Amino acid sequence: MADKYLETAKLHFTRVVDQTVKAVRENQPVAIAVGSGVGLLGAYGLYKVASRPKLQTKTVAEYEKPAENFYDVAIVGAGPSGSTLGYYMAREGRKVLVLEKKRFPRDKYCGDAVTSIAQKHLMTMGVLQEIVSEKKGFYAQNGGFVSPCGNSFIGNSAKELNLGTGGTAIAIKRIVLDEKIAKACKNAGANLVEDTTVENATFLEKTGIWKVECTTTDAQKFTYYARVLVCADGAPSKLARDLGYVKTEPQGVCSRAYIKNNKLFKWDGVVYYPPKLLPGYCAIIREAGDELNFACYIIPGGKAQNDDLSDLHHDIIANYPYVSRVLGPNPDIERMKAASLRLGGIDKSYDQHLLIIGDAAGFIDPLTGEGIQYAMDSGKIASDVLVEGLKSGNVSEKFLKKYQDKWVREWGREFYWSMKMSLLLGRFPIMLDAAARLIGKRGSRFLAEWAEVMTGNASKTWFLRLDVWPFLVLEMIAQFSNNLFGKKGPVSLEKTP
User: Are residues 17 and 83 located together in one domain of the fold?
Assistant: First the structure.
């Protein structure tokens, strides 16, 4: 077609030149000469356009993209965030690749408590029903917390909230949970590739495609291509850091140790606030099979530093009276394991054809250490945005900003207040002492509301309610008086755990 236009341009150009020369020789009117000149310029322009070298528009194939290795989205990391995103996108008929460094079942170290928001995603996937039927999860019916000075209250929040045999949280070992979610993702149609490490990811701007180079555990090399790359590789965020989107170390750290054959701990879940850990905490959570999970969380803002985790973990087990009393002198406990925590979100979790989700994006509450529900929520939000963007052919940086805007609205502001509260609690432990006193007076219903706030199911603006903050202030005054004059020891409405 271009050759045809070129011949036409040449003929037109020659004809106009001849007519112009003839008009000048025969002294024809100026208008005719001008018209001929304009025609000459037009013909010359057409000739130049037609004779311009052909644009070299490389196809995707010219970038060595085998058709079978091309995907709508390549997700790096098959934890709760990556597998949740993969599940929802595959369910929408999108071609999804999920790359996992390890092979399932593989462990992850945390408190294992799955809140009601995350449970909704698990139910959608059919995972929760499967876990319950296999008796691999344990619903918390009763529990409470012990304040820094020893004030405590234990209540039955499930009963108060009419949850029947369920609970506000269910303990599921991550070695079970993560594999179940990954399999649900695979069953939905995603290509789950295990034992595969991403060595390099390059964005090919001319085609708008990510080139992802991988190595398997047996040293085989593969290259995949995708319209969108998603970093879901956990708190260390290796890929997001290599690409320059995450620039800091994780701020916090947590420990975990399973305990067997314990007959002293009578409850389903208790949170403890040893002064040495503040604003962090430790917890004992009952697992399926009558095991316990002991976990410590170091959160920035206090004296405890990440390097202190091992010493604090073991010291609390042996010497902190409220914990050592229920674990006994020689608990049947596994060796401590630890994991890093990236807290409070990152400034920018999107770019051209790219998103960052889950722990990699810092979606862990700075006050409570809760991250599973935010990981799964971020996967769902990312799926909604990507499905819309791929359908319209727009996964630009400007469009993908929708993802960040949405998670900021959903919980980003909560993270802000969580960080402020965490710093306050680190400086003024008496606030937790007062809270335990108030909960003790209000009972299990008030404890259930507290638990909803602390697990992210309700906004932290709850503390600003008129039936909450004035009474907390009064209890702080009462606690301060007790501390000053030594009138009372720790307050407990039920047996102190």
Answer: no
pLDDT in tens, 452-467: 787 777 788 888 899 8
Tell me the sheet residues that pair with 62.
none
- Structural domain of 408: 60-136+173-249+342-426
What one-character-per-residue DSSP string does 308-351 give?
A: GHHHHHHHHHHH-HHHHHHH-SS-EEPPPEEEEE--S--S--EE
Q: Any idea which residue has 């992210």 for tokens?
A: 456
Cα R_g (the chain), whole angstroms: 32
Tokens of 112: 């294992």
What's the whole-model pTM score?
A: 0.84
Q: Residue 375 belongs to a domain with what CATH number?
A: 3.50.50.60
Provide the number of structural domains found in the chain: 2
Of 443, 246, 463, 462, the residue nearest 355 (C-alpha): 246
Provide the pLDDT confidence category of residue 51 given band limits of 50, 70 and 90: very low
DSSP 8-state assignment for residue 53 = P
**Residues 472 and 435: beta-carbon distance below 8 Å:** yes
In the sheet where 169-172 sits, what is the strand order? 113-115, 169-172, 137-139
Q: With contact defined as beta carbons under 8 Å apart, do 254 and 369 qualify?
A: yes
Is a pLDDT exceeding 70 seen at residue 364? yes
Question: What is the tens place of the pLDDT at every residue in 168-189?
Answer: 789 999 999 999 999 999 999 9
What are the tokens at 474? 């009064």
Neighbouring residues of 237: CB distance < 8 A, sequence distance ≥ 6: 231, 246, 342, 356, 359, 360
Classify each residue of 393-402 as buried b or exposed e, where b means 16 or more C-beta atoms within 10 Å of its C-beta. eebeeebbeb
**What would the pLDDT profile of 414-444 be if each residue is shown by its tens digit?**
898 889 888 888 899 999 999 988 988 888 7
Q: Which residues, other chains included, contact 299 with Cβ-Cβ below 8 Å and sequence gap of 6+?
A: 251, 252, 279, 280, 341, 343, 366, 367, 369, 422
Cβ atoms of residues 261 and 247 within 8 Å:
no
CA–CA separation, 93 and 79 (whole Å): 21
- Inform me whether the pLDDT recorded for 52 exceeds 50: no
Q: How far apart are alpha carbons 470 and 229 in whole angstroms?
A: 49
Scored b (16 or more CB within 10 A) or e, 257-266 reads bbbeebeebe
Q: Which DSSP state fits 250?
A: -
Same domain, 213 and 357: yes
